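Much of the work behind modern protein science is quiet bookkeeping, done one molecule at a time. Below is the pair of lines this work produces for a single protein:

***
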Amino acid sequence: MQFSHLQRRDFITLLGGAAASWPLAAHAQQPAKPVIGFISSRSPDESAPDVAGFQQGLAQTGYVEHQNVAIEWRWAENRYERLPALAADLIAQPVAVIAAVGGPVTALAVKAATKSIPFVFISGVDPVKLGLVANFAKPGGNATGVNMFTTAVEAKRLGLLHELVPAANQIAVIVNPNSPELDSQLMDVQTAARAIGGKLSILRVGTESEFDTAFATLAQAAAQALLVTADPFFNSQRERIVTLAARHKIPAIYEARGYAVAGGLMSYGPNVPDMYRQVGVYAGQILKGVKPADLPVVQPTALELVINLKEAKAIGLDVPAQLLARADEAIE
């Protein structure tokens, strides 16, 4: 085909104009990144290992933040009263799915805020009893998640503490008066204490300012061992708690490995970053179209016993050989 000079000029002009519009048109045709809402009762700094687990789970389903998914982060910084407003703010974004972590308080705030947006929770409390799901196998509704049953093994932790310090008959127990599982936790540890012939000093700590007072009371009561019950608030304050325990040279057991890594003596519970990883996996699957009602609530298949031998030496404690032999990890 032959073009005149004028036709060639018009054709090049037309082609140039079309080319200039291609990037805009192509951009307009690309689907927007899906948005995940992430809401926690905790704070970002101390949650870093768990957030890494969450992002690992997302990556397993093909989603990477800033590449093909956006994440809206909301942190209550241990101020539970902020959770309803943070949940409402996420829903207004809008988001395709919500990760509700940092304990049942977060999950309940999200559940109260939406009956349609899917959300994936982590709870140490039975989610059926809380009304988050209908049952474990078929959750129903718009929620599913992970049940770490951390609060259900307080008696086991007390038993391990007794094995570690068999001569201790005066045991301090720190509980959060704001926990929905407070009554159940107290019942479990009191029953376990009777079985080993131990006396308990119950210390209630619901705010950051109450830790120093609790440890002073613990010293006055001449407590010989300490159980810090499972609670998201305590988990967020683990550095402070293990520092106070070391200062008072009291053998203590905690809910998760993060305490032992931070310098705590012993922990028994699930692998928390792996539980967050599972939340990431479920969030990714929901983005791909799976309904939360079809995703069964996950529970850990094993609990980890971690002993910090460095801390044991610092407080002058010999760890019984048979207890050490059962440990999943010994921190030197």
The first helix runs from residue 5 to 29.
